[in-house]
Write a structure and sequence with these properties.
Length: about 120
């Protein structure tokens, strides 16, 4: 099943939140993304039916293996693209905002080329 950009953004947000806290609930996701509770609930329902997240009886959200794979990929793209943009002189805040837009648009081929370029030029 193909996941849309908005779904990727939710998965990445859950992934990032789970890196800094033991559990994540819909309210945490909404606060982080600036979305309303109904919007988050609808998105979580779609992600749950797609097999990307689980929600337990207490409302704790967890990524499935499929969800974590996508989230980790998007998170890596975000961090690498942010680093690349900063390395060519973009201020960190703008770089992070632009990386958020770009991370969904790049092919794997282009992304890996940027990653290799960045690795080659930061090894010095």
């Amino acid at each position: 099943m193909h996941i849309q950009e908005s779904g990727e953004m939710y998965l990445e947000t859950i992934y990032r939140l789970l890196k800094v806290r033991a559990s994540v609930r819909a309210i945490d996701i909404g606060e982080e993304m600036g979305y309303s509770k109904p919007s988050v609930s609808r998105a979580l329902g779609l992600l749950k039916s797609g097999g990307y997240v689980t929600v337990d009886g207490e409302g704790h959200v967890a990524l499935t293996d499929a969800g974590e794979t996508i989230a980790a990929k998007i998170y890596e793209r975000h961090t690498v693209l942010t680093s690349f943009l900063v390395s060519i002189g973009v201020d960190p805040e703008t770089a992070a905002q632009d990386a958020c837009k770009l991370e969904h648009a790049f092919s794997d081929t282009s992304f890996y080329a940027i990653k290799a370029f960045l690795n080659k030029h930061t090894e010095a």
